[in-house]
Amino acid sequence: MDGGDDGNLVIKKRFVTEAELDERRKRRQEEWEKVRKPEDPEECPEEVYDPRSLYERLQEQKDRKQQEYEEQFKFKNMVRGLDEDETNFLDEVSRQQELIEKQRREEELKELKEYRISFV
């Protein structure tokens, strides 16, 4: 029966032979030579070993992206100063409101004077 052979094949694939490691290093070195710049070292840098599980690494990436997203839309980032055009516009609106208020007061005073004169 081939059932036992399939089990050994699965177990064998969990282990990496020295020849496979050498082949991988050779391929990485060839790829490194293609992209290496003159200021980079001749030897391909070793891959950094991360003992965490794939889940932990992906979770960290997800959390980092979520923090960046939240930072982007924080209230403090949404508030900005006024530029020159906006301040000029607001100054003009304020000046016009003062003029209207002044005219209204003058008209009220004029009407009050006329009313007082009418009683005299």
From TrEMBL:
GO cellular component assignments: nucleus
The keyword Metal-binding is assigned to this record: no
Region (Disordered): 23-52
Entry-linked Pfam families: FAM192A_Fyv6_N
Spans traversing the lipid bilayer: none
Keyword Translocase: no
Leader sequence residues: none
Keywords: Coiled coil, Nucleus
Biased composition range(s): Basic and acidic residues: 23-39
Lineage per the UniProt record: Eukaryota, Metazoa, Chordata, Craniata, Vertebrata
Localization per record: Nucleus
Protein name (Swiss-Prot/TrEMBL): FAM192A/Fyv6 N-terminal domain-containing protein
Residue ranges of coiled coil: 55-115
Domain FAM192A/Fyv6 N-terminal as annotated: residue spans: 15-116
Domain of life of the source: Eukaryota
